[in-house]
Input
Amino acid sequence: MPMEPDAGPAHRGPAVQDRYPDDFAWCYGCGRHNPAGLHLKTYPDGDETVTVFEPRPEHMAVPGFVYGGLIASLIDCHSMATASLALYRRDGHRLGDPEPVPRCVTASLKVDYLRPTPLGVPLTVRGRVVELGQRKAVVESELYAGETLCARGQVVAVLAPPAMTPGPAGAERRPG
Ligand SMILES: CCCCCCCC/C=C\CCCCCCCC(=O)SCCNC(=O)CCNC(=O)[C@H](O)C(C)(C)COP(=O)(O)OP(=O)(O)OC[C@H]1O[C@@H](n2cnc3c(N)ncnc32)[C@H](O)[C@@H]1OP(=O)(O)O
Output
């Protein structure tokens, strides 16, 4: 049976971030072109999305626990990708289609830190769209360490204006 292009993370098709336009793929959290970035990858999983990331020792808050800013970054980039995928699907596309996935920017990011997040284990972020507008999506994401729910985010994503270009024309692009 042919592999469904967005049938879920088990199939390891393209990640949402693999399909952002090149000019918009420099984000510190998830830009595939940013050599110093975290390179987060978000995959569809049915009506949800999933990102798995194992924090490094330098992502420490206190020994043994993850820095809250990293947790916010995971929820932010994962939720943007979730919103982008929902807008892409709403336009009739599936991940793997040749058209690039539209890029969203974060309008609002709220994170509830429910319990300390341990270092040394992979973290899983799961997200779902709870409101989809013409240019806007509201996404709820949950971050787990193993089976333990450690943080929950609510994020408002807005479609980036298509005509805008990042940085001066012709300039060499640098991350940051
Ligand atoms: C890196 C900065 C990029 C800035 C943009 C550059 C151009 C795009 C180029 C390339 C895109 C790729 C870039 C990669 C990005 C990587 C991810 C990040 O790190 S993002 C960085 C942090 N985020 C910002 O810096 C956004 C700054 N804010 C804004 O630019 C505007 O406020 C923006 C675009 C978010 C909205 O402005 P409006 O004038 O286009 O649209 P309105 O009408 O105000 O809002 C649209 C809908 O969103 C709701 N909304 C807006 N702000 C909200 C808020 N704070 N809370 C709740 N809802 C909000 C509104 O109520 C409205 O909802 P209703 O359609 O009426 O239902």
Notes: Confidence is low (pLDDT under 50) at residues 1-5, 167-176. Residues 68-90 form the longest helix (23 residues).
